[in-house]
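Try this one yourself first.
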């Protein structure tokens, strides 16, 4: 009886790159021709041909490979014929599982022509294992090389994601650059504006769903994107509070790229794990921002004092702003009904609620406090503008000198950073050349490991120095911004008629409410100004 043969061929992207440069014998057509000629020469029946194109030799799913294994298990094949063992797999675990174990159990013979491997020859077992290890080392080196290349792109400010963040598109001229999506960017601005005005995540999501604004997934789908998510298969995908939170915290909207937040466990295991924040790759001013810096700073400041929204989805104006001047505990809010059925909102020291004694045990009405704070802010604005008019020349000179000094420090640090990044790039080039020398056989594996360790250590040291400089530049920029923030806020308001959470955040850090004086029936209110 003639032996039944299954021919297996595989071509990955790295093989395609190699074919274009070096060796056409790896092409699918040449693999098939070589294997068919060999089967014919040996008078074997070719039962089926299994071809996986653009699939890696690592231990990942390959449709034709799986079909071939199923045919082996079901007794349809006597021989699996490949051009080389690496075409079958580069993963040592796969080699051991099938060639050295399952194929014997299924009575299937494995033959690879170029390697001269034939499992009918018992002396081939060591050769199979050595080839498996060599191919696995190749995959590991290739994975490391790809990781370095991608990291270099991220560090140079290139976008490496498959899909642009909501609000942006990948540029048609340069896929590594983001450009503003004219439609989705309007929604991003709306989300930031609503949160700035005191609306919580849930209320913003509900508003977008109620007004039929397509969710990020729906928007991508309508744009023809192949993006998929957990909502695939549902009739419609909706906005959720965690989506809103993610958008509000993403620096991409102020023109910065933040990448490298997750990593794969290994080239074999594609499960993503989080990377510590200190190791994220952050490059500033890589693309046009959607959100202005003032709005971003206001929203970021709100996160520091993140409060739970009320049942309506709104964050109460005075939440986490008002404290007891006696015990320093926070004032919580509530309401009571008057005789005519009207609600009066009030604030009370939390000590009273928790049963702890505090002499400041009387509540204060929110509308009364609101009027008082509004008046104080307007007086503060009036004093500022009067003082500014009287001392304008001095203030301009003083501010200008301080700003120039900080800017000079920033320029010096940026120059140092540029020099270090050039040196980093040069070291990476040396490392790539070293890898090429190893592949070409100019140096041994031991020499490569010794030299590359030195380069890796130097690169890590350079990266640490660069990060320290970046941190210092960030601090100096913050100082520079703090100097102008005060002027910006006061110049934004001449007089305020209605108080809201956004205005309160601009001007006030905390409000301390004192106990009611028994003689005067009045209480002291102290304001800690934010500017």
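Now uncover the answer:
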């Amino acid at each position: 009886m003639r032996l039944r043969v299954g021919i297996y061929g595989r071509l990955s992207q790295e093989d395609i790159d190699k074919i274009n440069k070096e060796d056409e014998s790896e092409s699918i057509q040449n693999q098939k021709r070589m294997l068919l000629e060999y089967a014919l020469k040996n008078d074997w029946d070719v039962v089926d041909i299994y071809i996986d194109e653009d699939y890696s030799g690592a231990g990942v799913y390959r449709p034709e490979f799986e079909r071939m294994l199923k045919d082996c298990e079901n007794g349809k094949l006597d021989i699996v014929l490949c051009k080389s063992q690496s075409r079958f797999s580069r993963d040592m675990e796969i080699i051991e599982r099938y060639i050295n174990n399952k194929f014997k159990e299924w009575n299937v013979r494995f033959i690879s022509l170029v390697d001269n491997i034939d499992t009918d020859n018992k002396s081939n077992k060591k050769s199979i294992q050595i080839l498996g290890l060599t191919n696995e080392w190749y995959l590991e080196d290739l994975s490391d090389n790809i990781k370095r290349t991608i990291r270099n792109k991220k560090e140079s400010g290139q976008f490496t994601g498959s899909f642009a963040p909501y609000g942006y598109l990948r540029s048609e001229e340069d896929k590594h650059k983001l450009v503003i999506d004219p439609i989705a960017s309007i929604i991003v601005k709306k989300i930031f504006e609503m949160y700035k005005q005191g609306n919580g995540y849930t209320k913003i999501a509900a508003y977008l769903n109620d007004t039929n604004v397509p969710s990020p997934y729906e928007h991508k789908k309508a744009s023809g994107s192949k993006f998929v998510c957990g909502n695939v298969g549902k009739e419609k995908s909706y906005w959720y509070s965690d989506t809103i939170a993610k958008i509000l915290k993403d620096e991409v909207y102020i023109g910065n790229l933040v990448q490298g937040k997750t990593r794969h466990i290994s080239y074999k295991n594609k499960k993503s794990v989080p990377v510590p924040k200190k190791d994220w790759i952050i490059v500033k001013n890589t693309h046009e921002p959607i959100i202005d810096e003032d709005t971003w700073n206001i929203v970021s400041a709100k996160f520091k004092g993140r409060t739970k929204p009320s049942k309506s989805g709104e964050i109460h104006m005075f939440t986490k702003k008002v404290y007891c001047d006696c015990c320093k505990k926070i004032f919580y809010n509530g309401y009571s009904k008057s005789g005519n059925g009207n609600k009066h909102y009030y604030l009370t020291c939390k000590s009273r609620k928790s049963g702890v004694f505090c002499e400041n045990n009387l509540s204060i009405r929110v509308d009364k406090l609101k009027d008082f704070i509004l008046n104080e802010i307007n007086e503060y604005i009036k004093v500022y503008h009067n003082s500014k008019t009287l001392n304008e020349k001095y203030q301009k000179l003083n501010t200008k000198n301080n700003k120039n000094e900080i800017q000079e420090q920033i320029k010096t640090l940026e120059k140092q950073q540029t020099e270090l990044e050039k040196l980093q790039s040069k070291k990476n080039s040396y490392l790539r050349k070293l890898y090429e020398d190893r592949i070409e056989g100019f140096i041994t594996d031991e020499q490569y490991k010794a030299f590359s360790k030195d380069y890796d250590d130097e690169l890590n040291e350079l990266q640490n120095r660069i990060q320290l400089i970046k941190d210092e530049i960030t601090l100096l920029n913050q100082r520079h911004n703090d100097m102008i923030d005060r002027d910006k806020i006061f110049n934004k308001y001449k007089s305020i008629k209605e108080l809201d959470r956004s205005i309160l955040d601009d001007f006030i850090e905390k409000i301390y409410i004192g106990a009611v004086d028994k003689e005067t029936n009045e209480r002291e209110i102290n304001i800690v100004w934010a500017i």
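Discussion: Residues 4-150 form a domain with the Rossmann fold fold (CATH 3.40.50.1390). The two ends are 92 Å apart (CA to CA).
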